[in-house]
Structure formats: C-alpha cells, structure tokens
Amino acid sequence: MTDREHLWLRLAVDLVILTVRDGQLQVLVIERANDPYQGRMALPGGFLRAGEDLRQAAERELVEETSLDGAVLHLEQLATYGAPDRDPRGRVVSVAYLAIAPDLPIPTAGSDASRACWAPVEDVRDDLAFDHNQILRDAVERARTRLEFTTLATVFCGPTFTVGDLRHVYEVVWDVTLDPRNFSRKVVQTPGFIEPTGTRRIPPTGRPAALYRRGSAEALHPPILRASPGTDG
Amino acid sequence: MTDREHLWLRLAVDLVILTVRDGQLQVLVIERANDPYQGRMALPGGFLRAGEDLRQAAERELVEETSLDGAVLHLEQLATYGAPDRDPRGRVVSVAYLAIAPDLPIPTAGSDASRACWAPVEDVRDDLAFDHNQILRDAVERARTRLEFTTLATVFCGPTFTVGDLRHVYEVVWDVTLDPRNFSRKVVQTPGFIEPTGTRRIPPTGRPAALYRRGSAEALHPPILRASPGTDG
DNA sequence: CCAATAGTGTCTGTGAGACAGTATCCG
DNA sequence: CGGATACTGTCTCACAGACACTATTGG
C-alpha cells in the first residue's frame, strides 16, 4: 500500500493553438494515428521528458507540430487535467497550454506521422478524443478573457496590422459585432496597445488604413469589457 | 532512450490556504519535519494517490491539514509547477490549489506530525521551501484578481457578515483603503452579491449594521476594479 | 451631549455606446 | 461621380470617486 502514497505516472503536455482564419476562430488538431481513439481528432501533445521544464516541453511540441518558435509566440499555461480514467492507457496527467498564432500559410510542416490541420472550433468542439473537448472549451474561454484585459489580440495578427484587422479578431473570438469608430478611438487612445508604423495599407476598396505594430503594454487599463458574459453553449 | 519519451514521475498537490486574520492576509504553512528543507516553512501538500482526481487530492489534503470540508470551501486550481530541479528528492511536478477560508478559531487540528499555523503572507513570502515562494505570490495575485470579478470576498467572511466586514476583506487583500459609503452602495446594488438576513449586529460603538449572507451570483457585473494594477514586489 | 459606525443623497469626471459627418482611396 | 472603408466629433447615459448629511447605537 505504499503505492497509495507514491503513485508514479506519466505527464503529458497538450497544446491548444488558436488562430483566426477565414473569419473563424480555428484550432490546430491532429488525427490520431495510434492506439486509443485511432482516427479521431485530438489536440497535439506529448509526454514530458527528463530534464525538461513544462514550458520547454510545450515549446518543443509547438515546434514539432507547427514549426513555430514557441519562444516568440504567446504561450501560457492553461490548466492541468488529471481524472483517473481520462486516458485508457493508464494514469496520465495532462498540463494544457494555450498558444496564440497569427494566420499561418500552412500549419502542418511537422515531422510526425499524424496529420495536423486547422479546424474551426465550432466544427470540432464536441468531437475530440480524451477530455480534449473540455480543454478546448477552457482554452477558448481563457482567450476571450485575455482579449478583455491584455493586448493579446495583437498576437492573432501579423507583425503589422490595421485597426480593422484588430477589430476583426475581437469580433471573431467574441462572436459579436463592434462599432468600428468607437473601437478605433478606444484602441488608439490606450497607451502602449498599438504603435503607428507610418505606413499604410491600400485595400481593394476604400480609404487606406494606417498600419500598426504591437505596443509594449501587456495589460489593458482600462480593460475592454464584453457586454454580455458569454452565454453561448 | 525510451526513458526520454516516457518519463515517470510523482505528482504533488500543494495548497495555498488564505484567510484574513487580525487585519492581515494570512496563509496556512507547516514546518517541515523531514528530509529536504527540514525545519523550514512550506505550503501543505502531498502526493497524488491512485484512483484520485486532482481536486479530490486537494480536498483530502485540506481536510488533513485544517479539518475543513473541501467540498464546501472555495477551492480552485491555481497552476502547475514542474521545473526539473524544484524538488531535491527527484522529479516531482506540483499542482497548486488556492483555497479561501473564513477566520478559523484554530487552524491545526490536523493529524500530521508537522505543525501547521497561520502566518501573515508578508512574514513568510520569502522564506518558504521549494518553489513555494513563487506559488504563494501567484496565489495572492489570483486572489486579488478574483475579488475584482467574482463574489469570492464573501468566502473570506463567515456565514453572515456586515458590509463593513466585506469591505475589510477587500482592504486587507488589496492593501488599500476604500470609501465605506461608495463601497456599501456598490455592493448592495450588485444583484446576487449579498442577501439581507433581516438581523443586525451591534458593535462596541456605533450604529448597528445589517447582517448579510452570500448571494447566488458567482461573477460580478460590473467588476470592482482596483485603481492601481498592483506594483508591489 | 459626544464618539463612532452605518447608511443616503448629490455632484463631477470619465468612459462606453450611438451616430452624424468628414477623409481618402478605387473604378 | 458613387461605393466603400477609415477616421473624427458630439451627444447621452452609467458608473466611480469625493464628500456633505442623516441615522442609530453606547457612554
């Protein structure tokens, strides 16, 4: 019964990589090639290795799956999931990380045999393996909250972007429509949120928009609060 | 080298139990009786057991250390700490939980040989074993944020409390002074925050104050935002 | 009466939301 | 010129903070 006091287990690190593509919030998923849940969609992840920090493991998985530099991207710990029966192979506790990426040209330059692809969150939110549906739900809610209180929305965009691009991120992630004029005033007035680059982008139609880059601020004071506290299933 | 792919480790669950006592934010700490960091202060915790969920383990530790029912108290997962060298005994990853308790008469009715006691956060914030200083910092910051956006402050109080008691919680946790009149209006007007019991409490001096119990709401709309974004080390 | 705490009413500045109006591109 | 998008100005309402004032106890 010393086993009760000293349970040995394996620790997995799973990734929820979110982006905004084609006007939708999308998540990077893989199709499982092996044993449990074979053929099912799942979040990318892997086991923690010796000598590795949790964040290091998350960054390593991120590179393996998307060829993205985890040290540059936004990457934050989400939560840890440890229900005894969450993995049929045995006791596996999973630390989930939330990553935010701009719209990448091709997601899967990975080396793994498993195919990786972007999928709209709405399309896969109930079809993932393990307890990944719950993890994805928690990740989306975290991202929505981060948009309220931090400058995270700029990470969804590329290195330079217009105020309209930034507004588009908010509208897609929150699933709302925002007044472009009020949003512009709000964002420009918030110190450290965005910095003008001096250049402009000429759209197919309409007046050219000023291009910005992300500012130095991390937190938003005051925050951009959502009107309704998100009551969508 | 299969060891690199399948690292086995032990998972600990550590608790940050906060309360407001004697006008200070205090945390429950134990004095370590055994091997690493013997005699040093540390957060209470223990290893995950077979068949146990993470939250179950946290509730079990909570009962062992404080004889409090973890199912009733506020208990939320804080974060997971997994630096390779965080525990001299070997690879141990720790899932930290944040618990909020009202001012208890005696903290240590626990069975463990280790002595448990309340200590002001300020007094122990740099003297804890392992990486518990960092965990404590994160926990306090989480609690401060929770007070802004949830009705968590009522959990610091007993089953019934006055508006002044509730204000006292905010003032101690945030380390600020609040206008009693504005605070009262704000709290009473927020639907679901507090419910009148119809009874009153007679203080040593002054007008009797109405007693309330916690309301049904969990989230605060709108939130009670701190003025300054906490720049204390 | 005074001291002390509880609670109400009022003013003011700030910011969000609504929306008219102006600016600048393409065709 | 019209169509479309970017951006500015103005109004209104709600709320946070400051603070005068009233209410209710004990001594």
UniProtKB/TrEMBL annotation, chains A, B:
EC numbers, comma separated: 3.6.1.55
UniProt-listed Gene3D superfamilies: Nucleoside Triphosphate Pyrophosphohydrolase, Winged helix-like DNA-binding domain superfamily/Winged helix DNA-binding domain
Source organism per UniProt: Micromonospora echinospora (Micromonospora purpurea)
Designated name of the protein: 8-oxo-dGTP diphosphatase
GO molecular function terms noted in the UniProt entry: 8-oxo-7,8-dihydrodeoxyguanosine triphosphate pyrophosphatase activity
Entry keyword set: Hydrolase
Domain of life: Bacteria
Domain Nudix hydrolase as annotated: residue spans: 8-141
PANTHER family found in the cross-reference section: ADP-RIBOSE PYROPHOSPHATASE, SLR1690 PROTEIN
